[in-house]
Predict the structure.
Amino acid sequence: MAAITESEPIPSVKDLASSESSIRRSALRAIVSHLNEREATSPLTPTQSLQLWRGLYVAVYMHDSKNAISVQNLITEVAGLLSVIAAKDKAISTSGGQDGVWLDTWTTAFWETISREWVSIDQWRMNKVLLLVRFFLRENLRLLFDAVAVDEPKSSAKSHEIVTRQVHVLESWPLSPRERKVPDGLRLHVLDVWSDELLAQLEAATAAAAVQGGQESSSESGENGVKNALTGAAKLIMAPVEKISKEALSKGVKMRAKDAVKSFQESI
């Protein structure tokens, strides 16, 4: 069994706040390199994850808003770090270690950071943050469905646990009905994009599973098994939205959540 070792230091994030784009880019490369090279058995602590996300958030915030393609590329790279994080958990799991120590900490730190910074976002930078939230959610959902598709032919227990833990993060932060640390503006944005992103990732994962099944000449029952597992995961991921549609303090949030639930039910 892989033993979790004492956490190693992280690179400084102060240069991500530099007014010079070249300095910010160099600092980002150092962080990406560190995360790629860091041993899976030395997971980030919650404090380290918050420090990194604070720096990454500032890097997005400071980026030139006038260059839409450049902004999108940066946000894609930052959100894409989820794949690096998920790979660390996979490495630990393969060695018989504890699952989820990387991904749960990383996603929690992201939502905590966005929730904390939300009220200070000005009108000129809000679109960048909205895009970051959307791309992060998209990547998160993609990883969850990928885990289900890979796991299902063997055993659904592991992927079910991964999905369940991430659902807990979502219902504790952006989709929490009553957590006062989460601004309603963030809740509303997540609910605005929720159905589109969830259904798009479900469709992509289902299509990929069908192609993979065809290449491997698997049985129709096996292909249906993966499809059913993906649909089941989608329903589990919808649970926080159903909950917030009933328990949210804000009437506007309740209505938006009900719309998301209706859209999902009509499309599934």
Q: What stands out?
A: The mean pLDDT is 93. The radius of gyration is 19 Å. The longest helix spans residues 184-215. The chain has one domain: 14-29+41-213+220-266.
